[in-house]
Amino acid sequence: MLQFDVAACAGYDNRMLDWSTCPAVERDPERVSCSWVFRGTRVPVSALFENLEDGMTNNEVMEQFPVSREHLKAVLGFAAHPAARRRRARRGPVRLR
Questions:
Q1: Is the CB of residue 55 less than 8 Å from the CB of residue 48?
Q2: Which string of DSSP letters, residue by residue, matches 10-66?
Q3: Per DSSP, what are the bridge partners of residue 26?
Q4: Could you report the per-residue pLDDT of 38-95, keeping only the tens digit for each?
Q5: Per-residue pLDDT tens for 17-40?
Q6: What is the 8-class DSSP label of residue 81?
Q7: How far apart are CA 28 and CA 37, in angstroms?
Q8: Sign of the four-CA dihedral 68, 9, 54, 48
């Protein structure tokens, strides 16, 4: 059974995750304001976390949005992994012109 401990992730911003290494999501400048979405959908990853924090179950999320159990397992597993919570550091100083 797929379970997600919302309390364990409370207080961190899922936008701060480096989603570029998660195979279950994608980003396209032409869709959903270039937000990270579940691959093959227009469903923002942020919608999952917002709805889970509001008390929805995984099954309710799947009923409400066109996402699969595999999508949820991949994204929740990725978010739970400590290395995912660290964004890649920029190389060198940021230069303003």
A1: no
A2: TTS-GGGS-GGG-TTEEE-TTSGGG-EEETTS--BHHHHHHHHHTT--HHHHHHHSS
A3: 37
A4: 999 999 999 999 999 999 999 999 999 999 999 999 999 998 886 765 655 444 444 4
A5: 888 889 999 998 888 888 999 999
A6: S
A7: 9
A8: negative
